[in-house]
Structures are given as structure tokens and as C-alpha cells.
């Protein structure tokens, strides 16, 4: 449990630094978007290339990851239905809300959870692959299509696949699959750039909290509470039921359920900020699930661990 607390403390500490940055007017207003843009177009692609190029792509078909991915798709679909019935939202906002409900923080929270609770960091690496190679292209394609591209979803999908995040992910997977050696002269600067990705996103996130309280009226609170509830409550429950139904072992059930309870990834906020769609609602959902997931993960560890 200490590892989970350390992971949460790390994230909240950098977010707090971002808030102080705005409080003392080091960065003001839309200046924070520079951090988002550098993270989105440069640092995050470098991070994903270095992580995926060193991963084992063979574990992408792990039954635990397949079950967790199925749970994510189901809760995302539930959000879409809720959005259609209860709080009308445009396509981009609905897409980002559904992504908040199912896209888990597999990196800076998933890794300490995997190491200190599940006992093996390899449990979250396949989920990172699935999210980056399957979920992210679909989300980015939809966000590209609402930018005014009138030539159809397939063209938008092509543009999304040329997105630096997707290019970095695919390139990293190709290196992992083929075993191509990457010279240290290339990998070293990529490692350095990649190390800056998460801090920049978290700093921008903290800066955005200054001057606007979370969960204010008129900011889409119904969607925020729905996405947050689906993420930290329904997704672990659905994943647990699927894991039992397909006959996973008790330890695999524990692993899948714990992974499903991770909060919404900060990457989703980065997408919202970059495309300037549902930014406040996405920020509030990331913020809320980051706090709410801690007692849920602790309860799962107590009941199933």
C-alpha cells in the first residue's frame, strides 16, 4: 500500500507545483498550453517510443488485459448511452467523457500499483500497449474529425495515425517486435525528452486549477460525476464479473480488478487541452478519480488480495 500512496503523493505534488506556478504568476492563462503542446507533440511520443521499444509485445494477449479492456469498452459504452439520454453533449465531449470512464492511468499510478500491490510491473505494460495502439487512435480520430475535416472519418483516422503519439507508439512496437537495435546516441535524448512528458502534463493540469474551482455549476458536473462513478466503481465491478465468467484464476481476478480501479489517465486531459474540447469536465474527472480511486484500490486489495 505504501507504493500506491507514494504514487499518489508524486502526482499530487507535481499538480500542486503547477498550482503554485499559477498562483505566483510564473505562468498565466493560456500560457500553460505551451506545456500541453510540447508534451503532446514531443515529450510524450519520445516516452512512448522508449517504453514500448523495451516491452514484451507477446504479453498483449494476456487474458487479464483482454478482460480489463473489455471492461473499459463496456463502461465507455454506458457513458455514451447516459450522455444520449440524460445530458446532451457534442461528439467530442461525449468521446472524451467515455474515454475518461475507461482509459486508466497505467503509467505513473499503474506502475507503483503493479509493483507494490500486484507484485510485477509487467501487468500494466500490456494495457499501455492496448490503450496506445487501439484506444488512442480511435479517440484522436474522432477529435480530428470534429476539427472541421469534411472528408470523412477514414481521412480523420489517417490523420490521427500520423499523430506523433501514435507514430511514437507504433515505432516503439516495431522495434520491440523486430529486435532492431537503437543506438544509444538516439535513445539517450529520447529518454531525456520522455522523462519530461508526465511532469509537463501534471504541471499544466495544476495550473488549470488556479482561478477555477473544480466541479463548479455549469461545467458539466453531471457528466463528470457519471464518468467518475463509471471509472472507479462500475469498471472494477464489470471487470471482476467478466474475469469470474471466463474462469480466470483468483490472482488474475485480483490483478484485473485492481487495474480496472486505477483513475483516469492524465493523457485524456492532455488530449482535451490540445484539441480544446471538454477541457474543464475532463480535468475535473481526472482530479476526482485520482482521489476516489485510492480507497477503492485499498478495498479491492483487502477483499481479493
From TrEMBL:
It is found in: Membrane. The keyword Signal does not apply. The chain crosses the membrane at residues 6-27, 34-53, 59-82, 94-117, 123-143, 164-186, 192-210, 222-247, 253-273, 285-304. InterPro entries: Mem_transp_PIN-like. The lineage of its organism: Bacteria, Bacillati, Actinomycetota, Actinomycetes, Micrococcales. Keywords: Cell membrane, Membrane, Transmembrane, Transmembrane helix, Transport. This is AEC family transporter. It comes from Leucobacter muris. Its main location: membrane. Pfam families: Mem_trans. It is a multi-pass membrane protein. The keyword Disulfide bond does not apply.
Amino acid at each position: 500500500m505504501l507504493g500506491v500512496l507514494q504514487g499518489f503523493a508524486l502526482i499530487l505534488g507535481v499538480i500542486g507545483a503547477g498550482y503554485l506556478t499559477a498562483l505566483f504568476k510564473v505562468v498565466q492563462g493560456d500560457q500553460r498550453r505551451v506545456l500541453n503542446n510540447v508534451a503532446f507533440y514531443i515529450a510524450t511520443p519520445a516516452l512512448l517510443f522508449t517504453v514500448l521499444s523495451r516491452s514484451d509485445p507477446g504479453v498483449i494477449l494476456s487474458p487479464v488485459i483482454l478482460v480489463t479492456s473489455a471492461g473499459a469498452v463496456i463502461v465507455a459504452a454506458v457513458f455514451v448511452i447516459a450522455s444520449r439520454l440524460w445530458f446532451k453533449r457534442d461528439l467530442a465531449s461525449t468521446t472524451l467523457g467515455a474515454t475518461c470512464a475507461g482509459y486508466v492511468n497505467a503509467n505513473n499510478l499503474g506502475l507503483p500499483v503493479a509493483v507494490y500491490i500486484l507484485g510485477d510491473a509487467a501487468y500494466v505494460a500490456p494495457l499501455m500497449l492496448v490503450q496506445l495502439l487501439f484506444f488512442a487512435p480511435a479517440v484522436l480520430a474522432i477529435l480530428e474529425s470534429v476539427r472541421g475535416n469534411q472528408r470523412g472519418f477514414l481521412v480523420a483516422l489517417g490523420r490521427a495515425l500520423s499523430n506523433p503519439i501514435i507514430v511514437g507508439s507504433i515505432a516503439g512496437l516495431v522495434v520491440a517486435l523486430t529486435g532492431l537495435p537503437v543506438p544509444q546516441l538516439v535513445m539517450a535524448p529520447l529518454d531525456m525528452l520522455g522523462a519530461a512528458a508526465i511532469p509537463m502534463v501534471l504541471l499544466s493540469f495544476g495550473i488549470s486549477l488556479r482561478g477555477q474551482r473544480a466541479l463548479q455549476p455549469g461545467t458539466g458536473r453531471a457528466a463528470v460525476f457519471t464518468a467518475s462513478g463509471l471509472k472507479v466503481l462500475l469498471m472494477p465491478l464489470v471487470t471482476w464479473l467478466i474475469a469470474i465468467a471466463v474462469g480466470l484464476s483468483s490472482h488474475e481476478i485480483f490483478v484485473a480488478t485492481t487495474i480496472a480501479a486505477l483513475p483516469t489517465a492524465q493523457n485524456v486531459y492532455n488530449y482535451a487541452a490540445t484539441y480544446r474540447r471538454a477541457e474543464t469536465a475532463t480535468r475535473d474527472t481526472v482530479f476526482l478519480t485520482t482521489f476516489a480511486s485510492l480507497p477503492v484500490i485499498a478495498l479491492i486489495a483487502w477483499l481479493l488480495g
